[in-house]
Amino acid sequence: MTTHHDRLTAFRVHLATQNLDGFIVPLTDEHMSEYVGAYARRLEWLTGFQGSAGAAVVLADRAGIFTDGRYTLQVRQQVSGEDYEYVLVPDTSIATWLGANAAAGARIGYDPWLHTRAFVNEVRAALAETGAELVAVAENPVDAVWTDHPRPSDAQLIVQGDDLAGKSSAAKRADIADWLGTQGADAAVLSALDSIAWTFNIRGTDVSRTPVGLAFALAHADGTADLYVAPDKVTDAVTQHLGNAVRVHPRDGFAPALQALAGKRVAVDPDRAVAAIFEALGQGGASILPVRDPTVLPRAQKNPAEIAGHHAAQARDGVVMAKFLRWIEAKAPKGQLTEIDASDHLQRLREEAGAVDLSFDTISATGAHGASPHYKADEQSNARIEPGQLYLIDSGGQWPDGTTDITRVVPVGEPTAEMRDRFTRVLQGHIGIATAVFPEGTTGGQLDSFARRPLWAAGLDFAHGTGHGVGAYLSVHEGPQRIAKPNYPGGGPSEPLRAGMFLSNEPGYYKAGEYGIRIENLILVEPRDVPGGTEPVLGFETLTFAPIERDLIDVRLLTDAELSWLNAYHAEVVEKIGPALDGEDRAWLIAKCAPLGRAPSENR
C-alpha cells in the first residue's frame, strides 16, 4: 500500500469484512488531543492530511475529508480530490454529511475512544433519521490495515520541579479535592494529557512537540489520586516525586477502574473525555456529573512562578529569533535557501540555546505557500526562497520554563505596495489587540473584531482565530481562552478572559497563490488601573520580543498612537534582548528597531 488510494481501497475491503458500511476517522487520540503521538495519526496515514484539525468519513462508494478554513488550501494539496470530497466545517458537519449520504440500513462504525459523547449522540441522531445505524467498534479498523502501525511511546516521565510549577502536586490535588466537595462528588476523571501533566507536575515526550506523557488519572475527594500509566515510564525519581498519596497502576487498568466506581458520584468533562469513559462509568453504576475538568481554569491562569518562567523563556527565544532574522535577511536574497533549510537553521539555534523541543512543527513558508496558514514543508513541497517573495516563519520552542510561539514575515527583495498595505493593516490589527483595555468578564469573541477592523475597512479578512491560549511548558494551544469570531470552530470565544491567561495575538492576511502575512506575539492578561474608571478592567502585557519588519510598514496608514506603540515596542526589544547579543547581531538589532518617523504633514 504505497499510495493513499491503495490504503483507502484496503480500508474499504476490511470494513466490509467487519459488516460495516462506513467509518469515521478523526484526528485525535483517546485523550482528545490536538497533537497526537505517531501511533494515533490514523487520519494522516489514511488520507495524507497533515493538519492539526480534521476528520474523514469513509463510505463504500464515497468519502469526505472535513477541515476548517485554516486548511482550505492545504487539504487540496495533500489529499486526493478523486478519493475524497472536500467538506468545509462548520458550514457542514460530519453528522449532516452522513445524514445526507449514508444509505438506509447502513452500519457506520466509530471508535468510542476517539469521540466525545456529544459527537456520538449528534451523529447517531442524524443517522437514525435516514434509517442508518452508528456502531461502536472494539478495535479500530484503521489499525488492522496499517501494517507498520507504530506502538505508543515508552519514554519515561520527567519531574517538573515545584520551582517552575509554582505549586506542588499535593496542593493542586487538595484544590481539586476542595472543588469536589463543593460539587458533592467523590472523584474526577482527568483524561486530557495536559491536565494530568499539570496536576502531577510531570512532563513527558510521548507526543511530538508537546511535553506530556500518555496516562489517565482519577483524583479523589480525599486529595489522593490514581495514575494509570505504563509501568516502565515511571522512574524512581517520579515515584518519589508523586509520593504515597498517588497510586500508580498500569494504563490498561483505567477502564476497569471506571467500571468499579459503582455508587460513586464522578465528575467528567464532556468536552475533554471520550464517549468510552462515559460508557464505562455508566456500565459500572457510577453517577456521572458532566462538568468541566477542574484543572482547566487554574492551569490557564498562570501563577507568578509560571509567568516568571515564561518571561525567561521569551528572552532566550527572542535572542534566537533576532539571530535567525538577521541570518535569513542576509541569506535569502541570494536564492540558495529552501524552506527546510531555514526551519532547520532556526531549530538548531533554539537547541543550542537550550530549548527541549519545538512547540509545534515550524511553518516555514515562502511565496504562495505562505497563503496556507498551517503549511508544513516536506521533501515534495520544499520551495526555494527567492527574491520578490514574502517569507513567513511561524515557530516556537518548548523551554523547561515556558512555551513560546512567534510569527514574523521577511520581504525577500523589494516588496510591492500591496504587500506593504496588507502588512500594515495586519500590524494595525495586532496593535488593536495589544492595546485593548476591557472590563472583567469580556470574552475573546468580543475582542476579535479589534484585530480585523483595519482589514475589514479594505474589504479583507482572515479565516483563522486571532488568538489561542498557551500553556506553561505544555501545549502551545491551550483552552479555554481564545480570541476568535463567536462562530469559530472548536469553541472558546465565549470564555471570559481572566488575569494570568497567556494568549497569542496573531491576525493575518492571505492572498491565494501569492503570499501570506501574519504577525504573532504572545500576550498576558493582567489587571489595569484606569484613572477615573469605575469598573475593574484588564489589558494585555506583550511577552514576545523580536523585531517587526520595518521595510513592510507603510507609516502613512498608522495613526500617531499606533506608531508610538510600534516605536515603544522596538525600544523594549532592544532593552530586553540586546544585552544578550554582541557584535554584528547587536548592531543589526539596534538598526532594525530604530524609531520609525514620518513627515509632519503625514501625522495623524
How would you describe what is shown here?
The chain has 604 residues and is α+β, with helices and mostly antiparallel strands. It folds into three domains: 4-145, 3-Layer(aba) Sandwich (Creatine Amidinohydrolase, Chain A, domain 1), CATH 3.40.350.10; 158-293, Creatinase/prolidase N-terminal domain (Creatine Amidinohydrolase, Chain A, domain 1), CATH 3.40.350.10; 301-598, Creatinase/methionine aminopeptidase superfamily (Creatine Amidinohydrolase). It is 35% helix and 20% strand. The chain contains 19 helices and 28 strands. The strands form eight sheets. It has a six-stranded mixed beta sheet with strand order 4-3-2-1-5-6, with helices on both faces. β5, α5 (117-130) and β6 form a beta-alpha-beta unit. α4 packs parallel to α5 (117-130), α14 (304-331) packs across α15 and α16 runs antiparallel to α17. The chain is globular and about 75 Å long. The protein starts with a helix and ends in a 12-residue tail after the last helix. The model has no long low-confidence stretch (mean pLDDT 96).
